[in-house]
Design brief:
The chain is mainly alpha-helical. The protein contains 17 helices and two strands. The protein has a single domain, classed as MFS general substrate transporter like domains (Growth Hormone, Chain: A), CATH 1.20.1250.20. 78% of the residues lie in helices and 1% in strands. About 1% of the residues have low confidence.
């Protein structure tokens, strides 16, 4: 497909699918224990917080590795940098299954997988920029983010079933084999870039990584966006990590907790398909970000208070649909508003905010848990308040206007 002296290749979808598979598997390995916290604690003879640490390790490691990973993506490209993440996911994913009976070794393997995470997740907008025209990039980023949600969905829903019928050890072995397959497929199908750029000459050039970091911190809109990601992504990480503990005091089982968490992610998958596409179609970012924050807050209120199971499922779906659809729109907005900062840098900084806040929120939710009932209502209400405060910040965001967005407008007029 040729457009105004540049060409877009159909192979871009193969590259995106190979990337999405690695993303999904990496996130499945992250969230593995969230919906079986109680059973895993008994299996290993440790506390619920120790099981939570298996998920929190990803957030802690991300803080340390995010900037180097973004540098590697922007310097060495997709195949090398994402390849590092894919290899670590496959190697340590399989190792985790082979040492499944030992909590300490499982934690070590989990850390190895976690090191690979930023090399993969920070490349979402880079894949879109390398292979897709500007007018498709929010959609491509949405599909990349959809893979994140799909991996989490599978982890939340499949893990209780596999743990019950195959045992925790065998479940981890199955996940390890899948991780190896994902790495092999990535190296087999992913290519660095198309033969020619998917945009007019010169548009593919971005600033150097360190210069890009300086530019991002001078951009008011991006700073506001980082605060929004700090709250939104942190809330998502905390709620998914403690989903069983959140629902257990209200009499819901671990299987029900897994379904609730899975439906929240299913809503996010649908949202990641719908809202970014609408954002691309109307060439607007901020109205959709504001709508997503508002819808996420309403859904979280339901997750906090509802005691009727079917209403809880509705609330979880609404929360996921809006909260998770904000991710790809925000990633693309960040890439546009900070242009010519490299996509891996802006993407990585936004994810970094969510990892930092995830650690803070996870520990806060555990410390604020009722000592008598185990309820986490107090901390959930605080998250709702923070989301409503983010609405005020979202209202102050301005639509990006630069060479990148001008090119998108020109493509729309072709």
């Amino acid at each position: 497909m040729e457009q105004d002296n540049f060409k877009v290749y159909s192979y871009r979808w193969i590259v995106l699918l190979a990337f999405m598979f690695v993303v999904a598997v990496n996130q499945l390995l992250w969230i593995t224990f969230a919906s079986i916290t109680g059973d895993a604690a008994k299996f290993y003879g440790v506390s619920d917080l120790s099981i939570g640490l298996l998920s929190m390790s990803f957030m802690i490691v991300y803080i340390l590795v995010s900037i180097p990973a973004s540098w590697a993506i922007d310097t060495y490209g997709l195949r090398v940098a994402v390849g590092i993440g894919a290899a670590l996911t496959g190697i340590f994913g399989l190792m985790r299954g082979l040492v499944a009976a030992n909590y300490t070794m499982v934690l070590v393997a989990q850390i190895g997988i976690a090191i690979g995470q930023p090399f993969i997740l920070n490349a979402v907008t880079t894949v879109a920029a390398r292979w897709f025209p500007v007018r498709e990039r929010a959609t491509a980023s949405g599909l990349g983010s959809l893979a994140i949600y799909l991996g989490i969905l599978l982890g939340l829903v499949l893990t209780p079933y596999l743990a019950l019928h195959a045992g925790i050890g065998n479940m981890l072995v199955i996940y390890g084999v899948i991780a190896v397959v994902s790495a092999v497929l990535f190296f087999g199908f992913a290519k660095e870039h198309p033969p020619t750029p998917p945009c007019p000459p010169g548009m593919e050039v971005r600033s150097l990584v360190l210069d890009g970091l300086k530019q991002t911190f001078r951009e008011r809109n991006f700073i506001l966006l980082m605060i929004i990601f700090f709250v939104g992504l942190g809330a998502f990480n905390a709620v998914t990590t403690w989903i069983e503990d959140i629902l257990r005091p209200r009499g819901f089982s671990s299987t029900q907790a897994g379904i609730v968490g899975g439906l929240m992610i299913a809503g996010g998958i649908l949202g990641a398909l719908v809202l970014p596409s609408l954002s691309d179609r109307f060439r607007k970012r901020t109205p959709f970000l504001i709508a997503a924050i508002l819808g996420a807050a309403v859904g979280l209120i339901g997750v906090t208070y509802v005691t009727v199971y079917w209403l809880l499922l509705v609330a979880a779906f609404v929360m996921g649909f809006f909260l998770l659809s904000a991710g790809p729109i925000g990633f693309q907005y960040g890439a546009e508003v900070t242009y010519p900062t490299p996509e891996g840098t802006s993407n990585g900084l936004l994810l970094l905010m969510g990892q930092i806040s995830g650690i803070v929120f996870i520990f806060a939710m555990d410390s604020l848990k009722s000592p008598t009932t185990g309820s986490m209502t107090t901390s959930l209400v605080m998250l709702v308040v923070l989301l409503f405060l983010c609405l005020l910040l979202g209202a102050r965001l301005k639509e990006p206007k630069n060479l990148l967005t001008e090119q998108a407008s020109q493509q729309d007029n072709l």
